Amino acid sequence: MLSKELYICRVCGLQQDDLPWGENGYTPSFNICDCCGTEFGYHDATIQAIKKSRERWLNQGAKWFEPKSKPKNWVWEEQLRQIAAPFQ
Ligand SMILES: [Zn+2]
User: Fold this and answer.
1) What is the whole-number distance in angstroms between the Cα of residue 44 and the centre of ligand 1?
2) What is the average per-residue pLDDT within 9-36?
3) Domain with 44 in it
4) Backbone phi, then psi, for 60, in 5-degree steps?
5) Ligand 1 centre and the CA of 23: distance in Å?
6) What is the domain count for the chain?
7) How many Cβ atoms from other residues are within 10 Å of residue 79's Cβ?
8) How many Å lie between the centroid of ligand 1 and the Cα of residue 33?
9) Can you spell out the DSSP letters for the chain?
């Protein structure tokens, strides 16, 4: 994985301020994604869990967990493209 990909939420693609899974990609922070509400290390622990969480989030209208953090002109399709290939 590219180093910038380590900052990306595996469920929704939002770039995080802190590494969701640590520098090595294996040490979850248990922080919550502002966008999809994923708890890193819990909702995104396996590929299946990632896909299930993403599906649930999209089915519920791709709503922001922290609406205040939502950028203007935000497009969820563009954000999803940030997700590293192994987690798509
Ligand atoms: Zn997310």
Assistant:
1) 9
2) 96
3) 1-88
4) -90, 10
5) 18
6) 1
7) 19
8) 5
9) --GGGGGB-TTT-PBPSS-TTTTTS-S----B-TTT-PBTTTTTSSHHHHHHHHHHHHHTTS--SSGGGPPTT--HHHHHTTS-GGG-
Which residues are near ligand 1, the ion (C-beta closer than 5 Å)? 9, 11-12, 14, 33, 35-36, 38
For the record, the structure tokens of 88 come out as 């798509």
Using CA atoms, how far residue 87 sits from 1, 6, 74, in Å, is 11, 12, 21
Task: Write down the pLDDT at residue 15.
Answer: 97
Q: What is the pLDDT of residue 68?
A: 97
pLDDT, tens digit, for every residue of 64-83?
A: 999 999 999 999 999 999 99
Spatial contact of 52 and 44, defined as CB atoms under 8 Å apart: no
